[in-house]
Amino acid sequence: MNAGEGGASQTTLLQSGLELRSRLVLDEGLSRIDAHTRSRLNQARQAAVAAAARPSWLARFHGALTRRMVMPATGAAAAVALVAVFMLNSGGHHLAAVTDNPANALDVLDLVTDDDAMHLMEDNDGSFYEWAAAQGDGAGQGVGQNAGEATT
Amino acid sequence: MGAFASLAPAYNMPATSRGDTLLNDTSAAQSRALNQFLASVELKAYKIAQAGLRHQDDALDAVQDAMLQLARAYANRPEAEWKPLFYRILENRIRDMQRRRTVRGRVMAWMPFRRDEDDDDADPIAQAPSHDLPPVARLELDEAMTALDAALQELPNRQRQAFLLRNLEGLDVAQTAQSMGCSEGSVKTHYFRALQALRLKLGDFEL
Questions:
Q1: Which residue in chain A is spatially nearest to B206 when comparing CA positions?
Q2: Measured torsion, CA atoms of residues A63, A65, A71, A77, in degrees rounded to the nearest 10
Q3: Are residues A25 and B142 in contact, defined by beta-carbon separation less than 8 angstroms?
Q4: Helical H segments across B54-206, by residue range
Q5: Is residue A13 within 8 angstroms of chain B, CB to CB?
Q6: Using CA of residue B14, residue B16, residue B17, residue B22, what is the dihedral sign?
Q7: Is the overall model pTM greater than 0.80, yes or no?
């Protein structure tokens, strides 16, 4: 800063002229800001004032709701819909299978909480899950049959 | 009736209700003050953000973020502290966005089908100036604004910040130091170097 202080005193007039003209030009720039931008700034201001007026706990809740809760809530709704599709397509017998066997319940839980599974469902690939469920049933029967054969 | 009237407020307005009313009055006054403050700085803040980011939407986002953060975190602080706090938040936001843009630019440089984002925000109607000037004066001002704009772009970030906070927002050295998160000596250095660089580029900068 030493160099700056010394130089500043020598060129005060030039600098003040530059500063004055710069201020003039910068002020002119402000007055030329278009109506669209002014409108958006106004909206941003209103949103900020509303956020300040909101109680802090409500602001936190609102922030959490909009940022963190929306995605999981959507996922949960999709999961419920997925389970409903399974149950409707299987005539309700899957419910017994799921509740009777904790391992099956975990499989279903795994399925509905898996992001990829949700994306597949969103891509209308529900037929894959029907096929997978049918394969599971078939495999279970096959295992049972084999086990039965082995014991007899 | 007089005695009844004197008793009436005690029954009609219990303590909690009076407290709520006071609270609401305070809150309304604070909202008004905050609104006035933000209205007084929003255009300048936008210009500062635009000078740092060179993108209209990014500049608007930065200002909006700064407004929200000030409102949420510092609305209860004394009003005298709002301006340096607001510009401190804004500068941090601008710096974050500049860093993110640098990283994104490096990544996008490898993408074969990238398109220039700056191409789609040039709406001549939206960006039309909102007032009339004689053509010659307008031309001179246009040239001066373009020259100053270009010269400001070539300044290092800190010098540009110091120059704009002092000359556009009118902050003094102490407030500028608070806004920039540095000492007053550093502000003087940045500001002096900014002036030197601008004088070299703009000369006398006649209008």
A1: A21
A2: -170
A3: no
A4: 56-74, 79-108, 135-153, 157-167, 173-180, 184-202
A5: no
A6: positive
A7: no
Q: Does A67 touch chain B (CB under 8 A)?
A: no
In this structure, are residues B148 and A25 in contact, taking their beta carbons and an 8 Å threshold? yes
Q: Which two tokens stand for residue B160?
A: 């540009």
Q: What's the mean pLDDT when you consider all of chain A?
A: 64
Task: Give residues with Cβ within 8 angstroms of B5, minimum separation 6.
Answer: none
B72 touching chain A per CB within 8 A: yes
Give me the residue label for tokens 């270009």. Answer: B150
Q: Which CATH number is associated with domain B18-109?
A: 1.10.1740
Instruction: Say yes or no for a CB contact (<8 Å) between A45 and B67.
Output: yes
- The CA-to-CA distance between both ends of chain A, in Å, stands at 97
Parse chain A into domains and list their residue ranges: 11-53, 69-151
CATH topology of B18-109 equal to that of B135-202? no
Q: Mean per-residue pLDDT for B37-61?
A: 93
Interface list for B 147-166 with A (CB within 8 A): 148-149, 163-164
Segments making up each domain of chain B, as ranges: 18-109, 135-202
User: Does B126 reach chain A within 8 Å, measured CB to CB?
Assistant: yes
Token pair in block for residue A52: 């300040």
Rounded to the nearest 10 degrees, what angle do helices B135-153 and B157-167 cross at? Answer: 140
Calculate the average pLDDT of chain B.
Answer: 81
Q: Under CATH, which number does the domain B135-202 receive?
A: 1.10.10.10
| B196-203 average pLDDT score | 88
The first and second tokens of residue A68, run together, are: 């963190």
Give A23-61 pLDDT, tens digit per residue: 888 998 999 899 999 999 999 999 999 988 776 656 566
pLDDT value of residue A134: 74
Residues 6+ apart with CB under 8 A from A132: none
The pLDDT confidence band at residue A125, using thresholds 50, 70 and 90, is low
The residue written with tokens 């660089």 in the block is B197
Instruction: Determine, for residues B56 and A37 on separate chains, whether the beta-carbon distance falls below 8 Å.
Output: yes
Radius of gyration, alpha carbons of chain B:
24
Model confidence band, residue A143 (pLDDT cutoffs 50, 70, 90): very low
